[in-house]
């Protein structure tokens, strides 16, 4: 049954009818949450929210056309967030679209781990770095939820940095009201702390480094069309084993963190402890000080840069992110 068919008495078509049709059409093409997506699209077309949709009854012909336009694109697996123009993340919404990675619920847990560490620091030490920042959702959340913090959002992509800046600007007033500041840096997360680069002055001073880096091996193509066809490749793929960027951001974190400071790295559910040497916990533990790192951090050559390496699970019980502390202080 299509949205144009009359399913009610008296020739009326209601919001309920349109929702019923949209949900079933989305379900037939394999959209993972057809009921939620249908409600979000219809609410957006009607200029309301999903939570208030139950208050709606009549739907105008113009609104039905708008629903069908949105639905047609979602049926081709254009991400829901691209159609709505926003993505919800913790306590905020950020603007998203082509060229920037859509923040996921899993990353909210990564952010939470960073926040817990940040708020435990004295006000003057609440310095955080968000590497591979993308939409800026993590950096903004750190600034809003850890009052008096200084957050640096680092993004390399020319396309994504537009969204980073847009979202940071949109939330600047609220962040400032918390006594915090978020600074956007258009740089490579793997070199941003090297001598002569933007964050080099913060060597050994940062309390928390949080990152959701590209971690998919180049040969592994995601099954989900929303990811495979619409997310920027630079935000997805991390080299032959998926670890190229992770190794780089670990080195950056080792330089920036104060002794005992925390790094939080998101990874795929197949890159946890069970992956052995190929997993992020093992790669983190394997980073030792070379001559350059030793000169920058004071950690003796050949000694591990991180201690207290641990892995954490997401809400589905899957390994999702690694925590580690910079050598030099007890955890």
Overall geometric form? elongated
What assembly state would you assign to the polypeptide chains in this entry?
Answer: single chain
Class from secondary-structure proportions: alpha/beta
Q: Quote the distance from N terminus to C terminus.
A: 60 Å
| Main sheet record | 7 strands, mixed
The CATH top-level class label of the largest domain: Alpha Beta
- Total strand segments: 9
Number of domains: 2
What string, H for helix and E for strand, traces the elements in order?
HHHHEEHEHEHHEEHHEHHEE
Q: Strand fraction band?
A: 15-25%
Count helical runs.
12
CATH 4th-level superfamily of the largest domain = Vaccinia Virus protein VP39
Taking Cα atoms only, what radius of gyration do you get, to the nearest Å?
Answer: 22 Å
Helical content stands at 25-40%
Mean of pLDDT? 93
CATH topology of the largest domain: Rossmann fold
Uncertain runs are 1-11
What is the name of the CATH architecture of the largest domain? 3-Layer(aba) Sandwich
Largest sheet strand order: 5-4-3-6-7-9-8
What does this structure look like?
The chain is α/β, with parallel strands linked by helices. It folds into 2 domains: 9-76, Ubiquitin-associated (UBA) domain (Helicase, Ruva Protein, domain 3, Orthogonal Bundle); 89-326, Vaccinia Virus protein VP39 (Rossmann fold, 3-Layer(aba) Sandwich). The protein is built from 12 helices and 9 strands. The model is unreliable at 1-11 (pLDDT under 50).
List keywords for this structure.
331 residues; Rossmann fold; seven-stranded mixed sheet; two-stranded antiparallel ribbon; 9 strands; 37% helix; elongated
């Amino acid at each position: 049954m299509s949205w144009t068919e009359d399913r009610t008495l008296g020739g009326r078509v209601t919001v309920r009818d349109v929702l019923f049709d949209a949900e079933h059409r989305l379900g037939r093409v394999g959209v993972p949450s057809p009921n939620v997506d249908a409600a979000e699209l219809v609410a957006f077309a009607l200029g309301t929210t999903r939570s208030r949709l139950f208050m709606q009854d009549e739907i105008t012909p113009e609104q039905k056309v708008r629903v069908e336009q949105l639905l047609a694109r979602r049926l081709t697996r254009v991400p829901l967030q691209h159609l709505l123009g926003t993505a919800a993340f913790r306590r905020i919404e950020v603007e998203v679209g082509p060229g920037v990675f859509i923040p996921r619920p899993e990353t909210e847990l990564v952010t939470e781990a960073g926040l817990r560490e940040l708020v435990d620091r004295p006000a003057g030490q609440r310095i955080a770095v968000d590497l591979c920042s993308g939409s800026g959702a993590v950096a903004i959340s750190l600034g809003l939820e850890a009052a008096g913090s200084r957050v640096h959002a680092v993004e390399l992509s020319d396309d994504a940095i537009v969204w980073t800046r847009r979202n940071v600007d949109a939330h600047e007033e609220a962040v400032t009201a918390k006594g915090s500041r978020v600074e956007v840096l258009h740089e490579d997360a793997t070199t941003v702390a090297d001598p002569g680069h933007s964050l080099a002055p913060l060597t050994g001073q940062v309390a928390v480094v949080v990152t959701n880096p590209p971690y998919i091996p180049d040969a592994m193509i995601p099954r989900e069309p929303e990811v495979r066809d619409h997310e920027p490749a630079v935000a997805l793929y991390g080299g032959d084993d998926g670890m190229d960027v992770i190794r780089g951001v670990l080195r950056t974190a080792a330089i920036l963190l104060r002794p005992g400071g925390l790094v939080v790295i998101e990874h795929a559910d197949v890159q946890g402890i069970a992956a052995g040497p190929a997993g992020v916990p093992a790669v983190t533990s394997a980073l030792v000080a070379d001559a350059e790192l030793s000169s920058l951090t004071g950690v003796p050559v050949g000694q591990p840069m991180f201690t207290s390496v641990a892995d954490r699970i997401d809400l589905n019980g899957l390994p999702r992110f690694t925590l580690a502390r910079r050598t030099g202080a007890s955890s």
